Amino acid sequence: MGIVIIGFWEFASGRFFNDFWVSRPSAILQRIGEMAASGDLWFHLQTTLEETLTGLLIGMVIGTIAGVTLAFSGQFAGWIFPYIMAVYSLPKVALAPLFVVWFGIGLLSKVLMVTTMVMFVAFYNAFEGVRNIDPDLLDMMRTFRAGRWTTLTWVILPSITTWVLTSLRLGIGLALIGSVIAELVGANRGIGYYITKSAGTLDTTGIFAGLVIIMLVAVALEAGVAQVEKRLLRYR
Amino acid sequence: MVGSLSKLAIRDLSVTYRSREGATMAVEGASLSVADGEFVALVGPSGCGKSTILKIVAGLVAPSSGEVLIDGTEVRGIPSGVGMVFQNDALLPWKSVRDNIRLPLTVRGFSNDHQDLEAERLIRLVRLEGFESFYPRSLSGGMRKRVALARTLAYDPSLFLMDEPFGPLDAQTRIHIGREFLGIWERVGKSVIFVTHDVEEAIALSDRVIVMTPRPGRVKAEFAVALPRPRDYEEVRFDPEFIDLQRRIWEALKT
Q1: B142, B169 in Cβ contact below 8 A?
Q2: N or C: which end of chain A has fewer CB within 10 A?
């Protein structure tokens, strides 16, 4: 299927469509090759990966801890939930310019952007995950007079593993959006920066090369999560 | 009847559940006691509050009124030395048979060597040798029950609370595991409250059968089971005493 589409793109480009606007797969591949050879690829990719992975990690940790804590906080959860909803409903993309103004065009503004994007998804999944824990398992732990730590490591964390993996999956996409958007707004390196720079010179091949690289990163990270999942959920 | 010798004494226990539809009385003025080392079966129709009574004794649910004493001390919070076997096993799906059995040993803070040794002994006791590293999912219903039993034995409680532990098993497995359990219990000799709706199972296992009324649950009748121990779990069913008890208990349940 993919081959058919790419084949048609290659064939139609320059015949039915002006290749100035749509570029062509062979040119994009060639461009990525050139970027790799000149060191540009690693230069930009490294930056984007650093922002994406750091933000993803921080967002996942903060969101998950907040979700688990709040799910066990009883009344307090009901009180604070409307506020979380309000912040969540903000189009976070619109925060990118603010972060750049506040924290500059360096790593910090990008990581914060990614963290904000990922955090909420991790929060909701962890919260829902805790609420879906089999109550009998928690009762069982209580009858054994298990402490908080034992209950957390033996029951709560394993119970919410599928939920956390789901937020990690969604988080990868969101983290890439976050870092690239922040780079589009203000940066001097990174794949997002490369895309804006190419757009500035009407270099469609460059734009497509950037998009393809982001897609490959997403696919690679997703494959990594699938491996982790296989390992963590082998009891099923 | 509630003497200082009682392992467990329940006096005038009432439980009311509140929900959107209003208040439901699950248990009303139930009183019963279990002597040290006694095996008491609790039978009654579904929804008569049998499981609720166990949850109160385990400290998981607070009673609306009345009191529960274990070794003469009133239950507040989760009492120590009380082990529960849940209706649906409550095994941890992500832990192997061995680790499930080790759970209470970990909680009690034993050294790893001791945990291994004790888990090994219990696995032999419930005859699960060779399945140590299996996950619960790949075990049969009967085997899962044995893991749950071994886990509660690992906690080494002086009072066992068993909530229809053999409920979802097929008739044959039920008899099989019942026989094994009877053998194990006759060796450890700890106090047990065993909730079931199977009258034959109740008589074959217990020293005393308590019959409860439909909701709200109250104690309707008590029957001492004078069958000698050790018992043969199947043969005992043909004993005239057993058959007589069975008839009387059924009558108590009917009216």
Answers
A1: yes
A2: N
Comparing alpha-carbon positions, the chain B residue that sits nearest to A147 is B107
The nearest CA of chain A is from the CA of B84 a distance in Å of: 7
Q: pLDDT 10s per residue in chain A (236 long)? A: 888 998 888 888 888 888 888 888 899 999 999 999 999 999 999 999 999 999 999 999 999 999 999 999 988 988 998 999 898 888 888 888 999 899 988 899 999 999 999 999 999 999 999 999 999 999 999 999 999 999 999 999 999 999 999 999 999 999 999 999 999 988 899 999 999 999 999 999 999 999 999 999 999 999 999 999 999 999 98
Q: How, if at all, do strands B208-212 and B39-43 pair? A: parallel
Distance CA A51, CA A45 (A): 10
Alpha carbons A95 and A219: distance in angstroms, whole number: 26
- What are chain A's domains? 23-232 (1.10.3720.10)
> What residues of A are in contact with residue B104 (Cβ under 8 Å)?
144
What CA–CA distances, in Å, run from B227 to B42, B104, B200, B210, B245? 17, 34, 13, 16, 10
Query: How far is B66 from B63, CA to CA, in rounded Å?
Result: 7
CB contact under 8 A, A136 and B78: no
Inform me whether the pLDDT recorded for B1 exceeds 70. Answer: no
Residue of B55, B107, B135 lying closest to A144 (CB–CB): B107
Structure confidence by residue, pLDDT tens digits, B24-57: 888 988 999 999 999 999 998 887 888 899 999 9
Q: Is the pTM of this model over 0.80?
A: yes
What is the distance between the alpha carbons of residues B167 and B201, in angstroms, rounded to a whole number?
11
Helices (H), chain A: 2-12, 19-22, 25-38, 40-71, 75-88, 96-103, 107-131, 135-143, 148-151, 157-185, 191-200, 204-232
- Distance, in Å, from the CA atom of A233 to the CA atom of B14, rounded to the nearest integer, reads 43
